[in-house]
Specification:
single chain, alpha+beta, 6-stranded antiparallel β-sheet, 5-stranded antiparallel β-sheet, 22 strands, 28% helix
């Protein structure tokens, strides 16, 4: 028998930080709880609505609460206090399930639907059953809120509109950016794909990228047309080569609406098979790899499809009435390993995936970025910064035995790189972010803090003979490997790509620097100096670790590399990043151009103390104040109201301490604060 305190303890973080809506009910003398999340339009998913109906039938007094929107609950409460708040709601009949379902339902009464349908048809228009909540429907995905006849009518009208207008050339767009422009706060340039070499070069020149200045180029954004959305993973796009993306756009341009809907379902699936741009490029050759039911978005609809429409179930009609469709659909989905997405139900057909273009060079006709094609990838910004100072690299020696490649700093300086070594690591699938204060790249959402590679140039050869002066490039990675027992386990890893076969004998010294106040605060040595001597190839590419106390702070790592053979040395530092005590980096960016508010990087020295209670009408107060100040009414279904400085760390409910964040961002931010 579970007590209320037991179930509250299990869901305490959800309650404190408003991560989900929580249903509480009783079965006999045992307390039960279950988490629910709303759709982006603030409505219940069909399967969740069915589940809540089950809970209400089991306990008519059942409640649904959220730590941010329900009274008697707050971030700073203990488990006992949270349990008391939940009990108050339950005992006093507050926030019962029935009104919650009504407030978050997208269903309309049948008589209202039919009256509206008649008016639409009389005007020659298709009828869409779902109430309008500020979001446009996706005309390329059959979502079950239209009859087949209405959907076909909508497609016919859209085709007529297309015939009267110019054909759409944009498949998707990327945001081209220049590092220098970015650090100056200047905007990048949105650029449509597919494209030609001439158009791309003109766009790059517009943002100051040329053959004389290629190393500052990077991608910073992705979007697709609302009329034909393509849900490509942003991290894959930003880490891809422009030629790859151009080829991808040309391939996806040929997909029809049904194939594109299937692709979007596969891309947004929680169990997506797509982990590279190359795989997505191959999708047009594998449209039969999946079975896609675009109008099936929940277990009840799946059960109905298999029972009544698929022709796979042969039983008397009177028997079918006794089958609970959501349970039947859930059983089918589990059996065939199908998934529900915003674009319908998806299951693998059993066909073998055909690998056609993945891993192959981009065809010549789609190569558009000729002078950047062989450059180091954008996410190796620190390496490019140093290569810019080293000037041109020339391949001067290929030993018949060792095939060693020596990078020489040419005299006089050259304007163009005659040969460039691609020293970028294999794609890791990480999402790159930029620190709004320093302009440097940070790490992936939800991952332990890691830094970009630091390129450390070390001179070699005779210092008295400039023409023979060589440069070794060392790439050093660092980050938090794990956290346990109140300690960070940091690692460093070094490689020397300029000597791919016989590595130099070196000593690497690393110092972890930390500021436990602000980004611009005083940094001190954390944990002393650690070093490793590299005397064989096998020692390169290995993670070497050291431990320090786990603590929220701003961190960077400083390196010095000493070349034993040439008695030379070089040094470098990583970018600076903010980590919480669980080792996760702060990498959240949100700015509101209307109010001028933005989400700042917090100090590292907030302390818990006396807290202010969050009022139940906080969201209403914020949105009303925002409208009064700006004249703009926000779509509340898209945002959560967030305390910039949390109440648990001395924050207040003042408007100046509040900001609206996209729901997904808010969930990530509150999770980060949970580890502060």
């Amino acid at each position: 028998m579970a007590s209320l305190r037991d179930v509250v303890s299990e869901y305490q973080d959800d309650l404190r930080y408003g991560i989900a809506w929580l249903a509480f009910w009783r079965e006999g003398r045992s307390s039960q709880a279950e988490a629910f999340r709303l759709d982006l339009d603030d409505t219940l998913y069909p399967e969740d609505r069915a589940r809540l109906a089950e809970i209400q039938a089991a306990d008519p007094r059942a409640i649904v609460v959220n730590g941010y929107y329900s009274g008697y609950l707050s971030e700073e409460m203990s488990v006992a206090e949270l349990a008391a708040g939940v009990r108050h709601h339950y005992d006093n009949g507050l926030n019962n399930i029935a009104p919650f379902m009504e407030a978050h339902s997208d269903e309309l009464p049948p008589d209202v639907l039919e009256a509206a349908r008649e008016k639409a048809h009389a005007a020659g228009l298709p009828f869409y059953e779902r109430p309008y909540r500020g979001d446009d429907i996706d005309p390329y995905t059959y979502d079950g809120h239209m009859s087949i006849e209405d959907y076909e009518l909508m497609q016919k009208l859209m085709e007529q509109d297309r015939e009267r207008s110019e054909p759409m050339s944009e498949v998707f767009s990327i945001l081209l950016h220049n590092r220098q422009r970015y650090e100056q706060g200047k905007e990048g340039l949105w650029f449509s794909l597919p494209t030609t070499t001439e158009k791309l070069q003109a766009a790059l020149r517009e943002i100051g990228i040329s053959a004389d200045n290629p190393q500052d180029f990077f991608l910073y954004g992705y979007r697709s047309p609302q009329e034909r959305p393509i849900k490509l993973p942003r991290d894959l796009v930003l880490s891809a080569d422009v030629d790859e993306l151009n080829f991808l756009a040309a391939r996806l341009e040929k997909l029809d609406a049904a194939e594109l809907a299937e692709l979007n379902a596969a891309l947004t699936s929680p169990q997506s098979d797509f982990h590279s741009i190359g795989q997505i490029i191959d999708y047009p050759d594998n449209v039969d790899y999946y079975v896609h039911l675009p109008d099936v978005t929940g277990t009840g609809q799946l059960g109905d499809y298999y029972l009544n429409r698929s022709g796979m179930v042969d039983m008397p009609e009177e028997w079918k009435a006794g089958i609970f469709l959501p349970r039947f659909g859930l059983h089918i989905a589990n059996t065939e390993h199908g998934v529900f997405t915003d674009y319908g139900y998806l299951v693998k057909s059993g066909d073998e995936w055909q690998r056609v273009h993945e891993g192959q060079p981009v065809p010549e006709e789609y190569r558009v970025i000729f002078y950047l094609r062989y450059l180091i990838r954008r996410n190796d910004c620190m390496l490019k910064k140093h290569l810019k100072k080293i000037v041109s690299l020339v391949l001067v020696t290929m030993m018949a035995i060792g095939m060693s490649i020596t990078a020489i700093a040419a005299e006089p300086y050259q304007n163009e790189l005659e040969a460039v070594m691609d020293t970028s690591p294999a794609d890791s699938g990480q999402v790159t972010h930029y620190d709004t204060t320093t302009g440097e790249m940070l790490v992936e959402d939800g991952e332990l803090l890691t830094f970009d590679e630091v390129a450390i140039p070390v001179p070699k050869g005779s210092a008295d003979t400039p023409s023979e002066r060589g440069i070794e490039i060392y790439l050093v990675r660092a980050g938090i490997k794990k956290t346990s027992g109140g300690e960070f386990t940091w690692y460093f890893n070094v490689d020397c790509p300029t000597s791919p076969f016989v590595k130099p004998n070196i000593k690497l010294t690393a110092q972890l620097k930390g500021s436990f106040t602000t980004l611009s605060g005083s940094y001190s040595n954390v944990g002393g100096s650690v070093y490793h001597t590299y005397t064989s190839n096998s020692e390169y590419g290995v993670d070497y670790t050291w431990t320090v106390p786990a603590k929220t702070g701003y961190y960077y790592v400083a390196y010095t590399i000493t070349d034993y053979d040439n008695a030379t040395s070089g040094s470098g530092v990583t970018t600076t990043a903010l980590s919480n005590r669980t080792g996760h980096a702060w990498n959240f960016n949100f700015s509101d151009s209307v109010s001028g508010k933005s989400l700042p990087m917090p100090p590292a020295n907030y302390a818990k103390g006396a807290t202010t209670t969050r009022p139940s009408n906080l969201a209403d107060t914020y949105y009303n104040t925002y409208t009064a100040n700006t004249g703009v009414t926000l779509n509340r279904s898209l945002y959560d109201v967030h305390h910039i400085r949390p109440l648990a760390y001395g924050g207040s409910n003042a408007y100046s301490n509040l900001i609206h964040l996209p729901k997904a961002t808010h969930t990530q931010v509150t999770s980060w604060w949970a580890g502060y």
